[in-house]
Amino acid sequence: MEIIDEAKNIVLIGLMGSGKSAIGRTIAKKLGRRFIDTDRFIERKLGKTVPEIFEQESENLFRTIERETIKKVSQYIGIVIATGGGAAKDPENFKVLKESGWIIALYASPETLYKRIAGKKVRPLLLNQKDPVKVLEDILNDRKAMYAQADFQVSTENKEINEIADEIIDLLDTEKKVNYYS
Ligand code: S3P
Predict the structure, then answer these.
(1) Residue 167 CB less than 6 A away from ligand 1
(2) Which residues of the chain have pLDDT under 70?
(3) For position 175, what pLDDT does the model report?
(4) Which of 23, 39, 43, 156 is the pocket-test mutation for ligand 1 (most atoms within 8 Å of CB)?
(5) Looking at the domain assignment, is residue 2 inside a domain?
(6) Nearest CA to ligand 1 atom 3
């Protein structure tokens, strides 16, 4: 039975490869909530994949649609939202998401993130980069101040998806806080 606040959204932020989508989907299933992945929402809306939007349109257009999407999905009540890794960097996005519920920042080291995403779905920000781990480090440094403002920070290192989903549900019940970003 769900004892955590049913009206509050559960919002996952964190770098690419931190597990937002898989963990979000698992939490939603466990709590019987609706799950929305903002990147998939954008892809359906434009009929293009995220890499196609970056390549054929622009990152700017992607960020504009991302802002509209965050506004829209934040109006739902009691859902689980997985954002794209860059969404929370925009202060307006962060504010809107925060007002809709809890924000959980998922953590993993740049090395771990790269191991997870190498050879998987194309990440436009890592395309044609000689040193992708360094790029991830730079992106992390650029975003960590925002991630640090999340209500909860959860490390995903050496843990299974199911275990992390349970940890987050437990956190929302008990509000035990730990910090990885600050
Ligand atoms: C981005 C992360 C991607 C996607 C886009 C930009 C970013 O989502 O939104 O490629 O700025 O970090 P994932 O975090 O799901 O890979």
Answers:
(1) no
(2) 1-3, 175-179, 182
(3) 65
(4) 39
(5) no
(6) 84
